[in-house]
Write a sequence for this structure.
């Protein structure tokens, strides 16, 4: 599932760049944020994987739920570091679209 989500994110990022590039300048900060977002899911998965005790690897059919604090540790920074840039980018696109609409009218 993680691989599917990462692939979907990469395809979405490529599509976003193809659409945005002819219309506006893509700043280095935006490119850097996207490169960080590309590895964020892998870091979260690694944080959960490496925190598992060795007995969790016994049977592939045994699931040992991780503590809530671990999930929060892995996903709250991810949500913050991906959510804030996504909302910012959405806001920039929204205002750009509105400016273009008002110029045509």
């Amino acid at each position: 599932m993680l691989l599917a989500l990462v692939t979907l994110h990469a395809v979405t990022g490529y599509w976003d760049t193809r659409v945005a590039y002819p219309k506006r300048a893509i700043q280095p900060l935006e490119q850097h944020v996207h490169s960080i977002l590309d590895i964020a899911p892998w870091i979260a998965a690694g944080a959960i994987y490496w925190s598992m005790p060795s007995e969790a690897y016994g049977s592939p059919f045994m699931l040992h739920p991780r503590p809530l604090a671990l999930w929060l540790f892995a996903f709250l920074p991810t949500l913050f570091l991906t959510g804030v840039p996504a909302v910012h980018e959405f806001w920039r696109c929204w205002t750009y679209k509105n400016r273009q609409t008002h110029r045509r009218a």
In short: The chain has a mean pLDDT of 77. Helices lie at 2-20, 28-50, 68-104.
